[in-house]
Amino acid sequence: MNSQADLPNLAMALEYADLAAALYLAGGSDHAARLLAAAAEEVLGDLAKLLGPHAHSDEVQTLLARVALRYKAPQMDTRMAAGVRPSQLGLLGDDYSDFAEQRRNEVRSATASYLRAAWYTLEAMGLEAVIPQRLQKAVDHSTIYL
């Protein structure tokens, strides 16, 4: 593991996961949430593969925990804009509402899957203690409340 290059990736993945979870919980900006969650899951997956059997050594856990604990969730306004207008998609009235609802459900489901994968990857790396609070809430919401 190259701590100079890999540890900033952990901080970036935590930020992606946290922001994606915040957007998911707010119920807005679904496409942005999905992209951020997918990026977090991919970066964490790459890091987990890179660490392999060394992930649970004391030295690696200390380095990972140090970076993860430095991460501080940014304050953000979760009120989102409406998004794409029906006229931009060439859809009108009921056609748009059916399409939009179906698409929104697909995107939210994919986002929840990526967030759960990121959570489980952090857990597998031994970093349960530094899972962002909003990520924990989003995973709980997507598995318990739905």
The first-to-last residue Cα distance is 39 Å
Strand content: under 5%
Q: Give the structural class.
A: mainly alpha
Residues in helices, as a percent range: over 70%
Number of strands: 0
Please count the helical segments.
6
**Overall shape:** elongated
Q: How large, in whole angstroms, is the Cα Rg?
A: 17 Å
Average pLDDT figure = 76
In N-to-C order, the SSE pattern is HHHHHH
Which residue ranges are poorly predicted, with pLDDT under 50 across at least 5 consecutive positions? 76-82
Largest sheet: none
Oligomer status: single chain
Q: Secondary-structure blueprint of this entry?
A:
Blueprint: H1 3-26, H2 30-51, H3 58-70, H4 86-89, H5 93-124, H6 133-143
Helix pairs in contact: 1-2, 1-3, 1-5, 1-6, 2-5, 5-6
Summarize the structure.
The chain is mainly α and 146 residues long.
Descriptive account of the structure:
- The protein is an all-alpha fold and 146 residues long.
- Helix content is 73%, strand content 0%.
- The protein is built from six helices and no strands.
- Helix 1 (3-26) crosses helix 3 (58-70), helix 1 runs antiparallel to helix 5 and helix 1 (3-26) crosses helix 6.
- The longest helix is centred in the C-terminal third of the chain and has 32 residues, at 93-124.
- Mean pLDDT is 76; it is low at 76-82.
Which properties best describe this structure?
single chain; mainly alpha; elongated; 6 helices; 73% helix; 146 residues
